[in-house]
Write a structure and sequence with these properties.
Helices cover 5% and strands 4% of the residues. It is largely without helices or strands. A hairpin with a 2-residue loop joins strand 1 and strand 2.
């Protein structure tokens, strides 16, 4: 094996001869962007039904009308009895004193009246007529033909 020197070559007799350049490769890495592959993204919407169990609260009103028909001196105010609200309904009425007053008398008596009236009246009559027919005789037919 021969020893190598960079850029020089030795001959067998040990003298220097021509210079040969030696190249050395060096690694240089560069990056660049390019479109390699394309990606298609699609969304698919699917539906399903789920049931939600909820507890909803509400209040129903129950309205009762209770007749009282009692005379009071002043209008009562709205009041509450437990969970019931009581709203009084009042009405002003006219108080009238009543007395009997004989205002008039009506007198009724009977008086006979005779009146002649002439009215057209349609009367219907039926009349009945009965006649006998002579009996049918064969001789008459033969006489008619001759």
């Amino acid at each position: 094996m021969r020893p190598r020197l960079r850029g020089l070559a030795l001959t067998e007799d040990g003298s220097n001869s021509a210079t040969i350049p030696v190249f050395e490769e060096q690694l240089r890495v560069d990056k660049s962007e390019r479109d390699a592959d394309r990606v298609l993204i699609r969304t698919i919407v699917s539906e399903r039904t789920e049931y939600a169990d909820l507890e909803l609260k509400r209040s129903d009103l129950i309205v009762e009308r209770i007749p009282i028909n009692r005379v009071v001196n002043a209008a009562p105010s709205v009041r509450q009895d437990g969970d019931t609200v009581i709203v009084p309904v009042i009405e002003e009425i006219m108080v009238v004193e009543k007395r009997l007053l004989l205002k008039e008398e009506i007198r009724v008596r009977q008086q006979p009246v005779v009146q002649h009236v002439r009215e057209p009246v349609v009367l219907r009559t039926e009349e009945v007529s009965v006649s006998r027919q002579p009996p049918h005789t064969p001789q008459l037919k033969s006489q008619e033909k001759s």
